[in-house]
Amino acid sequence: MPEKYDHAAIEAKWQRHWEETRAAFVDTSAPGDKYYMLNMFPYPSGSRLHVGHGRNYILGDALYRYQRMGGRRVLNPMGWDAFGLPAENAAIASGTPPREYTLANIARMKEQLRSLGLLYDWSRELASCDPSYYRWNQWLFLRMWERGLAYRKQAPVNWCPGCRTVLANEQVVDGRCERSGDAVEIRDLTQWFFRITDYAERLLAGLDALPYWSERVKTMQRNWIGRSEGAEIRFSVDGFAEPVVVFTTRPDTLFGATFLALAPEHPLSGEIARRAGATEVAGFIERVRRESRLERESETAEKEGLDTGVAAVHPGTGERIPVWLANFVLPEYGTGAIMGVPAHDQRDFEFARKYRLPIRPVYRTADGDVDPAAMTQAIPHGGVLVSSGEWNGTAEGVQAIRLAVAWIEARRAGQGKVGYRLRDWLISRQRYWGTPIPAIHCGGCGVVPVPDRDLPVLLPQDVAFRGTEGNPLAQSESFVATSCPSCGGPARRETDTMDTFVDSSWYYLRFLNPQDDSRMVDSQRARAWMPVDQYIGGIEHAILHLLYARFICRVLKDLDLVHLEEPFERLFNQGMITRLNPATGKIEKMSKSRGNTVSPDDLSARFGADTVRLYTLFIGPPEKESEWSEDGVLGASRFLNRVNDVAERVAGLPGDGKAGSGPRVTPLTRLEHRTIQRVTEDAQRFHFHTAVAALMEFQRGIAEALEEGTETAAAIRGSMRTLLQLLHPIAPHLTEEWWERLGGERSLLETAWPAFDRDLATSPRVTLVVQVNGRVRGRLDLERGAAEAEAVALAQTDDRIRPWVEGKQIKRAVYVPDRLLNLVVQ
RNA sequence: GCCGGAGUGGCGGAAUUGGUAGACGCACGGGACUUAAAAUCCCGAGGGCCGCGAGGCCCGUGCCGGUUCGACUCCGGCCUCCGGCACCA
């Protein structure tokens, strides 16, 4: 009886072999048919990899091997997104310095990847915490600073009390920190930003040129950028020099504006508050500011407002309308000020009702003029303009908006304007374990850039991590104390470090010249190797990382370092692996914190890495979520043992010298070609789960051929080799082993992916479904490509079908060659 | 509310351009091997009904309708679930 194969010995052997032969090394300077594939580089966390992470890398490795066998020169590098908070928190908890902690994690994770049989070109390994990497973050920062793309400003920012640092907007999810889950507070701080908003339009337009990205991700990015067309309109304010500028998407409702509302953070709000006797205004501003972002943006938040007593001049009518403060006006969007049109905007309507402000409809609907007193809600759509001077009579819609914008622009009262939800990227972090921002604060010269020659600005080692003070970097006097590059006088270094998303926004370029200390990007190699042909990673990066990377790639293009705007040609987001959580009884995302992880190490020890790989790929379509099941692993293991068993029997076949009559078309040949076709097509769309199904049928076919003895030994050996090739991307160790034992000369990886004969992939005889009046009445076995007349004649004589057509007139026959014959009779 | 995606057996899931719905696997039932068990191999199976049997009939891909000889697939209208955005002016 077949025994289970010795996976431990086989896998150790081949992993050593791949390492010793540097199996995945690729010379990027050589010409050839390039294919750049990339898995999102991992954060080397302290906990072990689980099979949920493994899915990403196993899929990538299967594709890598498939592409290699397709004859391409495939670049498949790996690196480490090595900066970040956990290392610093570990330092606080255990005293291990972040670098040591991170390097240890990298070493362990690398071993885990290796033990799954994953091949990477390790000669290109990089870690973002390495000065040779992060100096280019600093260099890029300086270039962006020169161009005004990096700047410092005081602004209300998101502060995570748990992480004790500020966060980018993208890192705030439902008012909470995406990493720690703490409720985010708003603080007014001076911070460094990247001007991503300048690229909003290009980032949005670029999405249309990404046919191989999912609609899902593109929609998420579009929503995040949040483009809306409208106009900015100026309202002069009595007693103030500066007008209030409002942003609106409905300039056509201008004549319905009965008040202005300012965000409490608006500059004019502050000015009014500073005037004598405005204590009420100051108090309101203070009260709103104290609310957390979570409270202020919650759906149930009550609209609060305060009349400032100040009047603005309506640019259309010259009327005075009151200026209010309102908590629902957000400082970051538009201009932080709105015109209130209660008749046609629901929020303004509610606000006006609460504070008894006038409601003035400017659209007459099909039901006639609207009586403001009788309104129960705003009327956002439909009708014809009224009470709007020369605009009267225009129907609601694009025309009305264009008319309004032209009118406003002609009177110099404002201009058409496109608004975005996207805000500038806050890159400052008040933490140690990140790239130091290369800036120096000088009492005389202000904020001065670190000269290029002084890069990298290194992270200091003399830092204590107690977790009590603020940024540990600020405690390092050796780091902070410096001299001004401009005047030479004493100065202090910037102690903010960069968001780690800066690191990951260009690493895909660095893999092309990882050891090059003379430049950030090798433009020539980038021209040859970019874009990344296939990028693979989790959906959780749909906005953050992928938006930042697209942004920085455009910046690099504008700096003439790369030739392209979109770094990732094809994007694949694999679904999460879920598992029943015994603690909660629910099926949940696999994660350490939930305590429902399965470690590939443990499984590998029991079943082998090939089984882990096979099951991970077999579990379901990779783009969808899949539930892990132990029983499923057993099935995968059984299959590989069957492959091993059949290979053993093939190896024991007698040699039959030269096959006498050349290749014969047999059922096994046909199965073989059909399998090649199926697996090839499945691999192209990453559907290894159906490829495995096809391979299972193929394995069974070979086993049957061995039993029945109808095929020549040569034919069986040939099919066996094909099986090993097709299975190689999925189960590389076992297939390499048998390839060698069956006399294969080179590594399987060096062999060409099997070709199939389209004619052989389809059987010469087909089963035709015969319907009479749409009902299936029988099936006919006939030659492929048979003519309709032949099929009809055969059907009329077939015992099962004849009774249904005998004595009846065939009105028409619907014939789909090789598939179906439908006789319509009367 | 706006936008995107998805609904198929007990379960994960298959099904080129509309053409045998349920491949493959898990779980399940039966059998072989075994003193026995495990392991392995083989067979069975969407639901319902009729038939001793070979076999036959009806229903069936979220719901309702349409197009078609024929619809999981195309069209119209809904329902449910998942994801993104949302006091965004």
Detailed description of the structure:
- The strands form eleven sheets. This protein has a four-stranded parallel sheet with strand order 2-1-26-27, covered by helices on one side. Strands 6-5-9-19 form a four-stranded antiparallel sheet.
- Helices cover 36% and strands 20% of the residues.
- The protein is globular, with a radius of gyration of 34 Å.
- The protein has 826 residues and is an alpha+beta fold.
- The protein starts with 6 loop residues before the first helix and ends with a strand.
- The chain binds one RNA strand of 89 nucleotides through helix 7, strand 11, strand 15, helix 11 and strand 30.
Largest sheet: 4 strands, parallel
Mean pLDDT across all amino acids: 89
Unreliable stretches covering 5 or more consecutive residues: none
Order of strands in the sheet with most strands: 2-1-26-27
Helix count, per DSSP? 27
- Quick one: overall form? globular
End-to-end distance: 61 Å
User: What percentage of amino acids are in beta strands?
Assistant: 15-25%
Radius of gyration: 34 Å
Alpha-beta classification: alpha+beta
Q: Give the helix proportion (percent range).
A: 25-40%
**How many strand segments?**
34
